[in-house]
Design goal:
The structure holds two protein chains of two kinds. Chain A is α/β, with parallel strands linked by helices. Helix content of chain A is about 15%, strand content about 45%. In chain A, the strands form two sheets. Chain A has a five-stranded parallel beta sheet with strand order 1-3-5-7-9, with no helix packed on it. Chain A has a five-stranded parallel beta sheet with strand order 2-4-6-8-10, with helices on one face. Classes of the chains: A alpha/beta, B alpha/beta.
Chain lengths: ~200, ~475
């Protein structure tokens, strides 16, 4: 750290994935109700033009412990990475998201985006999110966003005033919240799991 | 003369406040132990309870490790190699030493009430370890407002000081708060009684002068029910090759329906272009919105210091209380800053807003670190945070470390951050219109920081805009 002399801050962690020049890595994560999981990833983009797209969703309604620890390390120029992790936390679940984007001095002309959105369904559930950026290159576009909130009461009222039962309205809103992170081919399975949270 | 030397002289020459005042001073011996603390306390003629408070803090401090979690490359600090108390000798017949008066005049701080024309501001001027004078005390006293140096407050209003001291920042809060509690010298004390709207801005100005010393200011602001005050703080220090320590504690208590606006323009000496010297600015600032409907607003412009470690925070305890944090932090050359805020939501329908703008240039490192916590009782609480970073040059770093915790289903927290550089298009556009590159950068940076600068009291806003320009001088090309 310090004084422009960039030292790989994670020098002792071996990457779980390395993405070379021109390669594209897509990873989807699904954590269904009842599952406690620690998901640790370190992804190094080591060649120009490498791309990484990560998506994750988690559904908790009991006493699950779900932790994401994700490091996306841009070590080459002209790379692109996106991350989107959305989840629902109910019961007495504890969800942690720690996502770090590091851009080494060589990682010029890089674009990196990271988002983590959470909805709390019960007062006993806990969510902690730590999205982090460490940028040592200047010609980059990088942003992150994180939210913790609840289902939108106005939207629920709107649906209910049109005759949609409350549980259905909640499930519909949750599904739309998760729509960006549902992997293709698993739509029906996830819809069932989401509906089970609102039964 | 080599180019390098030209640049160095140019950047050094720009710190206008870097002079030393030649004044006779008294010191306590170098080093830190219980005898030194007793000596400081005796010199200030303090009551026994305050000495006990100091010694208790010192004993706690001895068992605390130096924190190393910040994204800073901190040199080891030899706490036995610091002089903990330095005071200018008082001339026998005059109130203020003319040399000190000259110093503060040079810094643009009026110590005479008649000198002030427009924009009336009451000033508490602190020189090394003692307060030189506090202006407008009588005018303020007519409204029941107490504004004086901390040492005077201990003598004249011991009950108030005892009631509120360490009620927001306990002496065991952190390493530097404990150190400050043990050795603090002077600072400001301010009490606004019930229902009083303070008729003028209150201001403290801190000046480090003596070599080999540290400054340990302690400020306590209490706004009673329904009162309002706008408080400003400024600071400068001479240019030296050695690093000097500044470890302050600021506590703010905001009672029911009271409103406090706290603004800082931090312009400590940042060190030279190679990172020699500069102030280590390691401070703890915290306020509590104690009563319902209370409001606390922090605005800071951080341009100085070799190292900044500072997180002005608010505990939102009263229902419907609200707080804001607006910050611009500029680092250039070898400066390092790790700064941000904490918003602890405990009461119902509490609201907070964080707007942080970081600007890194040269070979500096600039980090935002923040915590937003929604407690279980924080029904309907709301936070919005925005942290932007601007990079100027390819050798600096910009980092964002937010921590968001929620334990309440009806609370809503939003955080977003972006990192970018000044675009070629913007510079080209300015260049086309005959604006030189450095001026263009200043212009763009001022626009970028405008949301924060516009929150500053008028006197400060002008100074801050100039400071931004000066701080970034020599950073392009």
């Amino acid at each position: 750290m310090g004084h422009g002399k960039y030292i790989d801050p994670f020098v002792n962690t071996a990457p779980t994935h390395t993405v070379a020049a021109g390669e594209v890595l897509n990873l989807d994560f699904v954590v269904l109700p009842g599952e406690s999981r620690d998901i640790d990833l370190r992804i190094d983009l080591i060649g120009p033009g490498a791309e990484v797209h990560l998506r994750g969703l988690y559904l908790c309604n009991a006493d699950e412990r779900v932790n994401f620890r994700i490091l996306v390390h841009h070590r080459a120029p002209g790379c692109h990475s996106t991350q989107l992790f959305n989840g629902l936390a109910g019961g007495s679940a504890q969800v942690g998201f720690r996502g770090v984007i590091v851009m080494a001095p060589d990682a010029q002309q890089t674009e990196a985006y990271q988002e983590n959105h959470n909805i709390l369904l019960s007062d006993d559930a806990r969510v902690e999110t730590l999205p982090q950026l460490e940028i040592y290159a200047d010609d980059v576009k990088c942003s992150h966003g994180a939210t913790i909130g609840r289902l939108d009461e106005a939207a629920l009222f709107y649906m209910r005033s049109r005759g949609i039962p409350e549980t259905e309205a909640r499930a519909l809103q949750a599904l739309s919240f998760l729509s960006g992170v549902i992997p293709s081919g698993r739509e029906s399975e996830i819809e069932l799991a989401v509906r089970s949270l609102f039964r | 003369m080599s180019d390098d030397k030209v640049i160095r002289e140019f950047t050094q020459g720009e710190y206008k406040e870097g002079f030393v005042t030649d004044v006779e001073q008294e010191f306590v011996p170098k080093g830190l132990n219980e005898d030194i603390i007793r000596m400081i306390s005796a010199r200030k003629e303090e009551p026994q309870w305050l000495l006990d408070f100091r010694l208790d803090a010192f004993r706690k401090w001895q068992n605390m490790p130096m924190p190393d979690w910040a994204h800073l490359d901190m040199p080891p600090i030899d706490f036995q190699d610091i002089i903990y108390f330095a005071a200018p000798k008082k001339p026998t017949n005059k109130e203020i030493d003319p040399k000190l008066q000259e110093t503060f005049e040079k810094l643009g701080i009026p110590l005479h009430e008649r000198d002030v024309l427009a924009g009336v501001v009451a000033v508490d001027a602190v020189f090394d370890s003692v307060s030189v004078t506090t202006t407008f005390r009588k005018t303020l006293a007519e409204k029941g407002i107490i504004f004086c140096s901390f040492s005077e407050a201990v003598k004249e209003h011991p009950d108030l000081v005892r009631k509120y001291l360490a009620s927001v920042v306990p002496s065991s809060d952190n390493f530097f708060a404990a150190l400050n509690s043990a050795v603090f010298s002077d600072g400001s004390f301010c009490y606004i009684p019930k229902g009083v709207r303070c008729p003028m801005d209150l201001s403290s100005y801190f000046r480090i002068n003596a070599r080999g010393t540290g400054q340990f200011e302690r400020t306590l602001i209490v706004a009673d029910e329904g009162s309002y005050v706008s408080y400003m703080e400024g600071c400068t220090a001479p240019m030296r090759d050695e690093q000097q320590l500044h470890a302050a504690v600021v506590e703010i208590v905001v009672e029911k329906d009271a409103d406090v606006k706290y603004s800082t323009v931090q312009n400590w000496y940042p060190g030279d272009a190679d990172g020699r010297g500069g102030i280590l600015n390691l401070v703890t600032k915290r306020g509590i919105c104690k009563g319902t409907g209370s409001h606390l607003s922090w605005t800071q412009v951080e341009t100085g210091s070799a190292i900044t470690w500072k997180y002005p925070s608010t505990i939102l305890k009263g229902d419907n209380s609200s707080s804001e944090f607006y910050s611009v932090a500029v680092t250039n050359n070898m400066q390092q800053a790790d700064t941000g805020t904490k918003m602890i939501h405990l009461g119902r329908d509490t609201k907070s807003r964080i707007v942080s703008k970081g600007i890194s240039a040269g070979r500096s490192q600039n980090s935002y670190r923040g915590l937003v916590r929604m407690g279980q009782g924080a029904d309907g609480a709301r936070n919005y945070s925005q942290c932007d970073s601007l990079l100027i040059g390819s050798k600096c770093g910009a980092h964002t470390f937010p921590d968001i915790k929620s334990a309440n289903t009806s609370a809503i927290v939003e955080h977003e951050a972006t990192t970018s550089k000044i675009s070629e298009d913007q510079l080209f556009y300015c260049g086309q219109r005959g604006i030189p590159e450095e001026d263009a950068v200043g212009l763009i940076v001022n626009g970028y920081a405008r949301e924060v600068l516009s929150r500053l009291p008028m006197e400060f806003a002008v100074e801050a805009q100039k400071l931004l320009q000066v701080s970034l001088e020599g950073s392009v090309g």
